[in-house]
Amino acid sequence: MKVRFMVIFIGIVFFLAAAYTSLFFFNFKGTPIYGVSFDPEYASYLLPNAGEGFLAVINDWNFKYIRLPAHWDQVEKTRGKYDFSDIDWYVDRAGDNDVKVMLALGQKTPRWPECHIPVWAKDLPHSVYREELKRYISATVEHYKNHPALEFWQVENEPFLGFGSCRPMTVAEAKEEIELVKRLDPRHKTILSDSGELSLWGKSANVADLFGTTVYRKVWNKYVGVWSYKFLPASFYRFKLWLADRAPVEAFIIELQAEPWIAKHINESTPEELLSFVDRAVIQNNISYAQKIGLPRVYLWGAEWWYWLKLKGHNEIPDYIATLNRVP
């Protein structure tokens, strides 16, 4: 009996090892469209002039696809009063330059602290909180749905991932928000995202019109310090799409790591410290890895940092970024 058990166990181990190894041989080399994320709030913290940094993204680096957040706590600082003037400037500049915008909304939008909830809403009973959240979503959709720069709505950012100080969200609640957006604006597709490394996408891959995954290769956390995902083959992401019955043509890399993820804030670090974690070669390797995943569009993550480097006189990464969308 023990011998039989051991034979079965060894067979399973060999099968899993062979399946894992085979993933390294099924890559889908392609040349995706490159976009970029930009957060005006974070840029205002990091840069002396956030608008100047944004203009560098669309003019100097020639990105034609931008992901911008409409953070709830920035749009509705006072309950019932919506102020879109700041984000208007960025969406309008995108429109002036034939740049297409993916606008992120919801309780959870890109950049720390992940959930950008107004102070006045944090302690509301959940049913009231949900109604206020939907009012902000409705106001944002009504404000931008006819803007010529708008391409997609990102509804929530990794809503089922327990990262950041956020209220938990159910699949039903996420679907409710997506249905609300689609009812108010049937012309523009919706996209919902999830972690590429920390989720199997069972709850997230088929909720919206499109799906977005993050791709991080080297991170830091307080429990283990620096952690690398280089053991994951590029086809790992395609395999998870297959498991979720989601077509690759309907999926984007919504965040490709192109900035360091370290223990300290960027403004508390030297350029040399940061470049020892992510330099030009690392970004090139990450882009090559993303090409092997084979999804049609890749949004890079780190534009605010690239411009910060440029202001510090470190041009190797900014100069490389400028080549990605260069017209021959």
TrEMBL record:
Note the Gene3D superfamilies from the entry.
Answer: Glycosidases
A Pfam match is Glyco_hydro_10
Q: Name one GO biological process term.
A: polysaccharide catabolic process
Report the InterPro entries cross-referenced here. Answer: GH, GH10_dom
Judging by the UniProt lineage, the source's domain of life is: Bacteria
- Which parts pass through the membrane? 7-28
Q: Which UniProt keywords apply?
A: Carbohydrate metabolism, Hydrolase, Membrane, Polysaccharide degradation, Transmembrane, Transmembrane helix
Origin species = Candidatus Magasanikbacteria bacterium RIFCSPLOWO2_02_FULL_44_11
Record's keyword annotation contains Electron transport: no
An MF annotation (GO) of this entry: hydrolase activity, hydrolyzing O-glycosyl compounds
Q: What is this protein called?
A: GH10 domain-containing protein
- Keyword Cytoplasm annotated: no
Residue ranges constituting the GH10 domain according to the UniProt record: 71-160
